[in-house]
Amino acid sequence: MIDRRTFLAAGAAVATTAITGFPAIAAPPTPLRIGFLHGLSSDAHLRIGEHLGSFAAEGLATETVQFITGLEAYQALVGGSVDLVTTGAVISNFPARGQGKAFLINAIEHATAQLWVHPDQGVATIADLKGKRIATTRGTTAHYFLYKLLAANGLDANTDVEIVHQQMGNAVTSFISGAVPVVATWVPFDSGIAKAAPTAKLLATAREYPDAAILNGWSAGNAFYAERKDVLERFIRAWLPANAYIIAKRDEALEYLHGSYYKDFTLAELQTQYDTARWLPAAEWEVLYRDGKITEWLDRVTAFNVAVGAFKDPLPASTYFDPSLFLKVAAAA
């Protein structure tokens, strides 16, 4: 069966041959430099889209660079070494400063963030956190979760605990070694903690704190957004079948991702990681884009960044998040 796009492309080639006497030459693919974090919410759509050939079908050649946290990813975006980034809570940080434009959401991370403690260092309950050193990466999903957890339990993130700011890999290493009694992190770092520090305790996850849920999504560099909206629309068209596949064929998607990109985890661990996020079909995303829920969610995390002193006078999400590209592509799909 020939689909409409294939039929139109074939027709165009015949027409070109008839007019010029030479067959049409396919345009070279558009290179797209992508920065990503290695976690399902960030890279599942990317890798499944590549697997399905949906990026290639849109004439896009993905060139990927892995980062540990969204901070480094956005620094690369601002510096111009990547065109797009996919991250968690940091999507409400740099764009709110005018550095990058958010345009597409992957998933709702409702349980990816976690708080691990060493009971043998005097931390067994939330109340025990007061006065303790907590390793995490400021401005990230984990920091936002920690902020919400502390506030919900009558503790102030700025005065009642000492936050040890480290790149997340280093923060987890510090915790495993016992250098700090507490770490706020996110999956899949928990697997390493459970294996290397068997006496450590998972004290809380974002699942118990609904306000700590964050959006994971895509941003483009300012110049790229201004000049290449056509490419962003093609990217969204390639994202849509990947999103549908991740939801409708969850087991197949996870088996592929496990075998190709997540060999350090068991398939069961990967399934658990999948369940820490909510994956919505395009029709449900359309509703959230249109009714302002996405901007409301993003603004909430931007407000957190202001509260912890990351920056002042942020742009509102209605300025730094553009829903129009997704809505246009989804309506035509």
SSE layout and pairings?
Elements: H1 4-20, E1 30-37, H2 40-52, H3 54-57, E2 60-67, H4 70-79, E3 84-87, E4 101-109, E5 113-117, E6 133-136, H5 141-152, E7 162-165, H6 168-177, E8 182-186, H7 189-196, E9 201-205, E10 214-220, H8 222-227, H9 229-248, H10 250-260, H11 267-274, E11 277-278, H12 282-290, H13 293-307, H14 317-320, H15 324-332
Parallel strand pairs: 1-2, 1-3, 6-7, 6-8
Antiparallel strand pairs: 3-10, 4-10, 4-11, 5-8, 5-9
Helix pairs in contact: 2-9, 6-7, 9-10, 9-15, 10-11
What does this entry look like structurally?
The chain is α/β, with parallel strands linked by helices and 333 residues long. Helix content is 47%, strand content 18%. It has helices at residues 4-20, 40-52, 54-57, 70-79, 141-152, 168-177, 189-196, 222-227, 229-248, 250-260, 267-274, 282-290, 293-307, 317-320, 324-332; strands at residues 30-37, 60-67, 84-87, 101-109, 113-117, 133-136, 162-165, 182-186, 201-205, 214-220, 277-278. A 6-stranded mixed beta sheet has the order 2-1-3-10-4-11, with helices on both faces. The protein has a 5-stranded mixed beta sheet with strand order 7-6-8-5-9. Helix 5 (141-152) links the parallel strand 6 (133-136) and strand 7. Helix 2 (40-52) packs across helix 9, helix 9 (229-248) crosses helix 15 (324-332) and helix 10 crosses helix 11 (267-274). The protein is globular, with a radius of gyration of 21 Å.
